[in-house]
């Protein structure tokens, strides 16, 4: 049982390290338009027009920084997620540790 837990922790760390290594950082605090479009398109392809956070069907999507720039978050692919405008406003500069893993917070 214990070796399994270590294997699981190792797998998560390996996955996170891989993300960190291929996580391109963009200049400034806003993702470039072509990255934003690609991210939103990918989100719609996988999830349809449903918001990551509230789960409602929306057409107005924005890019949110999971760890806000104001809290030293990176302006990069893996630190961004797609939220509806309402959720993005509401989230502001708050951040839940779990959000980085689940992509949503209750
Ligand atoms: Zn939403």
Short structural summary:
This protein is mostly helical and 106 residues long. 43% of the residues lie in helices and 9% in strands.
Succession of helices and strands: HHEEHH
Largest sheet: 2 strands, antiparallel
The total beta strand count reads 2
Query: Between the first and last Cα atoms, what is the distance in angstroms?
Result: 31 Å
List the defining traits of the structure above.
binds zinc ion, mainly alpha, DNA Binding (I), subunit A, two-stranded antiparallel ribbon, 106 residues
Topology readout:
Elements: H1 2-21, H2 33-47, E1 61-65, E2 80-84, H3 85-91, H4 99-102
Describe what this molecule looks like in 3D.
It is a single chain. The protein has helices spanning 2-21, 33-47, 85-91, 99-102, and strands at residues 61-65, 80-84. The model has no long low-confidence stretch (mean pLDDT 87). The protein is mainly alpha-helical and 106 residues long. It contains 4 helices and 2 strands. The chain has a single domain (2-102), classed as DNA Binding (I), subunit A (Orthogonal Bundle). It is globular, with a radius of gyration of 15 Å. Bound molecules: zinc ion. Residues 51, 53-54, 56, 83-84, 86-87 line the site of zinc ion.
């Amino acid at each position: 049982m214990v070796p399994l837990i270590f294997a699981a922790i190792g797998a998560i760390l390996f996955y996170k390290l891989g993300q960190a290594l291929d996580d391109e950082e963009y200049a400034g605090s806003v993702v470039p338009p072509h990255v934003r479009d690609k991210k939103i398109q990918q989100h719609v392809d996988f999830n349809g027009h449903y918001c990551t956070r509230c789960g409602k069907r929306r057409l107005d999507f924005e890019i949110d920084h999971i760890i806000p720039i104001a809290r030293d978050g990176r302006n990069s692919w893996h630190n961004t997620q797609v939220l509806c405008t309402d959720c993005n406003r509401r989230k502001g500069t708050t951040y839940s540790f779990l959000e980085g893993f689940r992509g949503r917070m209750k």
